[in-house]
Amino acid sequence: MYLKNCKVNRRIFTLTVICALTVLPIYAAETSTNNEIQKAVIEMKMDNLSTQYLDEVEKLFYNQRDLQEYNTALKTVNYLINASIKYNGENHPQTAFAYIARARYYTELMIPNLAKKDLDKAFDISNYNNSNIDLKSNILTSYIGYYLALEEPYQAMKYIEEVINLEKESVSKYRELGQIYSKMKNLKEAEKYFSQYYDGIKDITNSEEELFNYHLMMAQMYQETKMLDLYRAEMNKAEEILNTIDKNKDELKILINTCKIQYFIDTKEFDKALSLLNENNDLISFAGKSYQKTNLIYHYLDFYREQKNENQFKKYASKTDKFYKTIPSESLLYLTLEEKQIDLNKDLNYFDKANEYANEALEKIETYKEFTPFIYGKYLRKLAEIKLSQGNTEETTILLDKALENYKKVAPESAYEFYEIYKNYAELSNQKGNYEDSINYYNKAAKIIKELQGDKSNDLVDIYSGLAQTYIKIGKIEEAIPLTNEAVLIKENVYGKTHIKTIEEKLNQYNIYKMAELQDEAQKVLNEINTIVDNDEVIGTNNEINFRLNIINAYVLIEKKEYESAIINAKEALKNAITKQNKQEAYHLLHQIYSKTNNKLKAYKYKKLFEKIEKE
After folding, report:
1. What is the CA radius of gyration of the chain?
2. pTM of the predicted model, to two decimals?
3. What string of DSSP letters covers 538-567?
4. How far apart are CA 351 and CA 357, in angstroms?
5. What digits encode the pLDDT tens for the residues 133-170?
6. Contacts made by residues 297-300, CB under 8 angstroms, sequence distance 24+
7. Which of 147, 412, 425, 488 is the most exposed place for a label (fewest CB within 10 A)?
8. d(CA 397, CA 380)
9. How far apart are CA 477 and CA 455, in angstroms?
C-alpha cells in the first residue's frame, strides 16, 4: 500500500519493475508472465529502460496483488536477485534495486528481520555507488516505508531528512512527512506537511488520482483523530474527484467505501456500515484479490465486534483461515486478527480468552522485538489492560513498565504512545487507591494530547472522564463537574448533540450531577436524553444506551417509590444487556427493588443470578 499512493519517477522505473513483483505480489505461473520476467531480467543490464516497455511491465503486474501467490512471487524476486548478481555483479545498482524489491516484499508480509537484512544489503551496495542519487533515495524511502508498516514512525523519521536533501525538487517528501506525522497522531504537523504536498500537486496536469489519494489520506487522518467535520469535507472532495476518473473506478470506490465503513462503525451507524460492507463485497467479485477480501473480512470483524455479536464475529474470523494458511509461518500479518480477538473478548469480559490471545501475539513478537519496539510495547499494554480488568495490579505494573521501556527506546515522551500509557498508569493508580498519582498521570496524558491535537481532541474525553471519577473518589465532586461538562462539549463538537456517543457522555454527566446532589441539573440532563430517545432522533444504534437509560429510570422511579414501573424498566434493561457485567447490574437492581417490595422469593432469585455471574 505504501507505494500504491506514490507518484512514480520515470528515472527510477527499474525499481518499479521489481516492486511490481513484490509490493504487489503476482500470479507468475503463466508462460506469458514468465516471458515478461525474463525480458525484464535481460533489460536489467541497461542503465535506462524505455518508458513504453516499463509501462507494459507495470500494467502486467500492478493489478494482480494476491498474497496467496507469495511462493511464486518470492521465487520470482529471488530469480531477479540472482540474475542481477550474475549479469551485473554483487555491487551493481540493479542488484541493490533487486534487494530493495525483496525487502519491500518481506515488509508487505510483515517479516521484519528479513526485510531489514535486504535493505541493509542494498544500503551497503549504495556505498559503492555514491553518485547514484536514485538508488540512495529509494533505499531511504524504503526504510521509511518499512518502519511505517511496522508502526515505528519515529524510526522512519530518522531517514526523512536525507530524503529531503536528495529530492530537493520533489514534493513527495512533504507527503512522506505528512504520513509519518499522521502515524504519530500529531495532527498539527501532519496538516502542515500535507498542505505543502497539496500545493505542489494541485496544478499538475492529469493529477486526478494523486489528488484523490491526497484527500483520502486526509480523510483517514481526520477519521482516526475524530475530527469528523473535517473528515466529511475531505471525503466529499475525494468522491467528487472519483466521479471525474474513468479508470480503476471500482478499485478507488473500494478505497472510499473502506474509509466510510470504518467511519460508520466508529460512529455506530451500523445500517450504513452494513450497506457499504455488502457493496464492497459486490465490488470485490473478480478473481484473485485475496488480500482485499481479507481486508473486507477485517471490517466485518470490526462491525460485529462493535455490536458484541460473538457468533457472527467467529463466523467471519474463520473465513481468514484460507488466507493465513498461505502466508509464511513467521509472518506478523496474523496480528491484525489477533488484536481483534483480544479486543472482542475483553469487551465481553472473557478475560481468560483475551489473555490467551494476547500471550500468543507476544510470543510471536518476541522473535522480532529488536525490530518492533512499538508493536511489542502495544501488546504488552494490551495484556496489561486485561490484567487490570481482572484486578491484578502487580502484573499490570510489570507489563506497563516493560511497555514504557520499549517506547522510550525509540520515541520522545511527547509521543502519542506515552499519552496511552500514562492513561493506563492513571487507571492502575486508581485501582491501587493512589489517587494523587492517578491525577498526576492523567494530567501528563492531557498535556501530550493537547500538544499533538489541540484542546478539542476526542482523546481528551477519556482523560476528563477518568479525572472526574478520581476527584469523586477523594470527595472533590466540585472538581469533577467542569471536567465532565468539557467532555460533553467535545463529544457534541465531534459527533453532534443527538449522537449515541454524546448521549453516553451525558449519562456520565447525569451521574456526576446526582452525586453532587444537583438534582435540577441532573433531571434536566435526563430529560434531554429521554426526549432524544423518545423522538427516535439518536444517530447510531446501541443496546447499551437503552440498557443504561432503563437502569437510570429505574433508580429514579425507586426514589419516587413507583416500584412497579421501576421493575418494568429493570427488566427492559435486562433485555438490552449484552455483556455479563450488564446482566449482573440488572440482576442486582431487580434484587434491590423486590427487596423493597418484600417479595423475598424474587429478591432471592435475582440475588442468586447475580452471584452466579460473580463466580464466573
Report:
1. 27
2. 0.82
3. -BS--HHHHHHHHHHHHHHHHHTT-HHHHH
4. 10
5. 888 888 998 999 999 999 999 999 989 888 888 877 77
6. 298/336, 298/337, 298/340, 299/258, 299/261, 299/262, 299/265
7. 412
8. 11
9. 23
